[in-house]
Amino acid sequence: MKYLDEYRDEKIARGIVAELGRRATRPWVLMEICGGQTHTLMRYGIDEILPAGIELVHGPGCPVCVTSLETIDKAIEIASRPDVTLVSYGDMLRVPGSRIDLFHVKASGGDVRVVYSPTEALKFARANPGRKVVFFAVGFETTAPANAMAVWQAKREGLKNFSMLASHVLVPPAIRALLSSRRNRVQGFIGPGHVCTVMGYREYEDLIREFHVPIVVGGFEPLDLLEAILMLVTQLEEGRAGVENQYVRSVTYEGNRLAQKVMAEVFEVCDRKWRGMGGIPESGLSLREEYAEFDADRIFGTEGVTADEPAECISAEVLQGLKKPTECSAFGTRCTPENPLGAPMVSSEGACAAYYQYRRHGMVAAKDIH
Amino acid sequence: MPEETKFDIAMQCPVPVAATESILLGHGSGGRMSGNLLRDIVLPALQNPVLERLDDQAIVNVGGSRIAFTTDSFVVKPLFFPGGDIGTLAVNGTVNDLAMGGATPLFLSLALILEEGLAFDTLRRVMESIRVAAALAGVVVVTGDTKVVEKGSGDEIFVNTSGIGLVSSDLQLSADRARPGDRVLLSGTIGDHGITILSQREGLEFESAVASDTAALHTLVAQMLLASSEIRCLRDPTRGGVSSSLNEIAARSSVRIELEEQAIPIREDVQGACEMLGLDPLYVANEGKLLAIVAPTAAEKVLEAMQLHPLGRDARIIGTVTDSHPAMVTLRTRLGTSRIVDLLSGDQLPRIC
Questions:
Q1: Are residues B276 and B156 located together in one domain of the fold?
Q2: Interface size, chain A vs chain B, as Cβ–Cβ contacts under 8 Å
Q3: Which of B7, B15, B335 shows the shortest C-beta gap to A44?
Q4: d(CA A125, CA A296)
Q5: d(CA A133, CA A154)
Q6: Counting CB atoms within 10 angstroms of each CB, which of A1, A214, B85, B236 has the fewest?
C-alpha cells in the first residue's frame, strides 16, 4: 500500500541495521518517548534485529498508561451520575481506577460512549440538551489542540451542557524528570513525532543545553525508527548532542502555529501527577480560568478526589530503563493486560503490555525464533 | 545539575481491578473474556462430551446419520450496511457454522426478537434478505418464533438462527486435529466485514468503498473436500478475526501456528482504515472467509480448488503449524522478525493517538 510499504521495506531495514553495526563502536542506551513508537518497535520486532549493544528503553509516552489513578477515579465518579454522558477515547475505558474501570460503569447503567474526536462529543451535546456531556480529555500535546478547539467552540456557541475533564500531559517535562533521575541510563532520545508535529522541536533545544543529550524526532513506521536510531548513534559516536528531525514529512521546527494558538487560548500549564512516575512540575495542561464553566472537575466537585498508588510494581524502573518488563516477577503471571498491576501493562502502547502482546515468546525460548 | 536537586522517580502502581462480577461488553468479543465466561459459568452447568469439543457446530449420531447442529444470535448496528444486513448475516452465519463441520446445510430455524416501535418496512426488508439468502444457500427455514420486547429493552431486531445439516460418515474436522507440518490456508481478504460496519457507525466519518463479505461458504467447503480428504479443521474467522480462530486451534491442538505477514491478503482500503484507527486487521471480523488447516502434502491441491471457486479466488497459504511453543500463534513480520499474535482480552479498542 502506498505511503506504508515504503516505510516497511525489509531490504532498506537490513541496510540501516548493517550501517548501524558499522557505526556503533560501543553500547548505547536509547529511549523512544512515545507509546506509538514502542508499539511499532514491538510489533515489528525491531529490537530483535538491532546490533547487540544498542539497547532500547521504553519511555512514558503512553497517554492511557500515565493518566493518574485519581483522574480515572474522577471520570468514574462523574460517569456514574444518571444525568451525565461521559464521552471518551476507546482505550481509556479499560484503564483500571482504584476499584473499577469505565467498562464497569457502563455495565451498571452509566452512559459511557466512545468517540474518535472531541467534536463528536460537541455534536452529541447539541443534540441532547437534557444530558450533561463530559468529554474525558487525556493525551499529550498531540490530542490537546482538538480538545482545546472543542471547548473554544462550546464557549462561542454558549453550549451549557458540555464540559471537559482535562488531564493533558506534556513531553519535555517528562524527559527532564527522567534525565534528572540519579539512576538515569538513557543517552539519547527518539523524540515523539506526532507531539512535535503540533509543537515543533524548538522547545527540545533547552533540554539539550541543560543535559547535553541528543534528541532525534522520529516517526512511527519501522524505517522511521531505524533511521532515527541511526541518526542518534551517529551523533553519539561523533560526540555531538543536538536536536535533529527524522520525521521531516510531518514535523517542522515551529510546528503547527494555529494548533499552538488554540491550545494557549484554552489551556494553561500546571503541575501533573503521572501514573507510575509521580508528580512532575509544570508537566500538564488544565483549563484556563476563563473556561472554568467548562471544567468538569469544578462542575461536579471532584477536585478533592485523591487516590494513593501503592508501591508494588516496578514501573518506575521499567520507564527508566533500569529493568526490562520481563524482569518483573509479576510479568505475565500476576500482572497481565486483563489484570494490570501497573501503568505500563494497561494499554498496548505501554512497555509491559507491548512486551506481553508481541514478545513474550522470546523470553520462553529465544532460540526457537531465529 | 547539582546532585542534591536530582530526584528518584517514585515507584508506584495502581491497584488491580477485582475480578468482574457482571457481564461487560468484552465478554461478547470472542476474545479471552468470552472464553473465560464459557469456562467459568456456561460449561460447568452443561458438561457433556459433544459440547466440550467447542467447535462451531455439534455433530451427533441419530439413527445412523451424522447430524450437524448449531445456533447463533445476531445483533448488529446498523441493521443495514453495504454488502448485506442482519438477515443475510443470520442465514450465512449459521450456514457457515454448519459448513465448517463439513456438513451439507439443510434446515434453519428463525427466531426474531423485535423492539416495540420497529417499522414494518424495516422488518419486511430483513425478511426479504433472509428469503434471498436462504434460497441462495439452498436451505429452508422450517420453523421459527417471534417475541416483542418493550421499547428500550432491545435494539430494533435481534435474530437467532439454528441450523441442521448432514455430515458424511468418514469426515472428521475439528480444532484439535492440527499437526506440526500442516499448512494454514485462508480463503481471501481479511477485515472487510468489520471495517464496513465501523465505517457505517455514527461518529466515524470516513468513507470507504469496502462492503461486507457476508456469504455462505458451504459450496466452497464442498469443493475443498472433493480435492482432498486431508483437511484437518475449518473455521470461519468471524468475531475476533483470524487471530481468535487460530489461537483456538493452536490451543486445542497444542501446536504453534506461524503466520507470514506478507502472505495475508488484505484490501488497501481496509488496511488504510485499520492504520487510521489503530486496529490490527488480524482481529477484525469476517463473515465470508474461512481458514483451513491442511496436511502439507494436500495444501497445494486444496489451495487450487479454493482458487477455482468465486469465494476463494484470493485464497493463500498464510502459515504453517509447528511444535515449538504449544498454544501460541506467531507472525513473521515483513522485516523478518517474529511476534506473537495474541488472543485479545476483550474488544479491540481504537487508540488515542
A1: no
A2: 196
A3: B335
A4: 14
A5: 11
A6: A1
